[in-house]
Design a protein that fits this description.
Strands 1, 2, 3, 4, 5, 6, 7 and 8 form an 8-stranded mixed β-sheet that branches. The protein has 6 helices and 8 strands. The protein has a single domain, classed as Flavodoxin domain (Rossmann fold). About 40% of the residues lie in helices and about 15% in strands. By secondary structure, it is α/β, with parallel strands linked by helices. The structure holds flavin mononucleotide (FMN). Flavin mononucleotide binds next to helix 1.
């Protein structure tokens, strides 16, 4: 594959190193000047020794200055049931939605289950997508990651997740995608992300995400100002 000098290619981190999927350079680790971004991060896995949750802990460690990552859990959410919803959101759902609402962005690390995303993650997105017109996911910037012991590193799960997020009108970071293949070789026994190439791509992704959130927000504010000026 073609590699341009001076660029850190995105974004499949497999056993052969990093392979280029996008032409865009990943910015190096840098700060987000003036930003104070709160990111709510959750994994689609419920198991204790999850590579995907471990990835979020690595993200917290590698986040640029100006970005705080809060790792939250989705395991306490009941299965979505419209009858339950009609009686009022259970406390775990209320808390989850508030965490999404208060966040400047959301980071999701998904495993791949049967070529798609796990049911627990679909369930979290179902709750987060409610109610129509009041969903905390509408317009929310979201970045995706995924780790799997297989060779394809959650490629199909991330496509699936992008499709769901588009449907609920979240705004998903277009690139880079971070697909971690052979995850068992990238973490140590204590589930610390030890693979240097993966750490570098993850740090670049977080910086890009931070800049993107800031730019999207500025563009929205400019649109609003233009609309108001047009009404005068
Ligand atoms: C029900 C089930 C289905 C799975 N399907 C896939 C799959 O389609 N592709 C894949 O790469 N791995 C698949 N796996 C393996 C997971 O990628 C692996 O268990 C991974 O470690 C789960 O993520 P976690 O470490 O964050 O829990 C599957 C695992 C389970 C339990």
């Amino acid at each position: 594959m073609l590699r341009r000098p001076g660029r850190v290619p995105a974004a499949v981190v497999g056993d052969a190193g990093i392979e280029t999927m996008a032409n865009e350079p990943i910015q190096g680790v840098s700060d987000l000047p003036g930003a104070e971004l709160r990111i709510a991060a959750f994994a689609g896995s419920l198991r204790r020794a999850s590579f995907n949750r471990a990835l979020l802990h690595a993200a917290r460690e590698l986040a640029p200055e100006g970005m705080q990552i809060d790792v939250i859990e989705i395991g306490d959410l009941p299965l979505f049931n419209a009858d339950v919803e009609a009686e009022g959101d259970p406390p775990a759902v209320e808390a989850f939605k508030a965490q999404l609402r208060d966040a400047d962005g959301v980071l999701i690390a998904t495993p791949e289950y049967n070529d798609g995303i796990p049911g627990a993650l679909t369930n979290a997105i179902d709750w987060g997508s409610r109610l129509p017109g009041r969903s905390p996911l509408v317009g929310k910037p979201v970045a995706l990651l995924g780790a799997s012991p297989s060779q394809i590193g959650t490629a199909r799960a991330q496509l699936h997740l992008r499709q769901l997020l588009a449907h609920v009108h979240a705004r998903t970071l277009p690139s880079p995608e971070l697909l971690i293949a052979r995850a068992h070789e990238k973490f140590d026994d204590e589930l610390r992300l030890t693979d240097e190439a993966t750490r570098r791509v993850l740090a670049g992704l977080l910086t890009r995400f931070g800049h993107w959130i800031t730019r999207e927000r500025a563009a929205r504010e400019a649109d609003r100002a233009l609309a108001m000026a047009g009404q005068r």
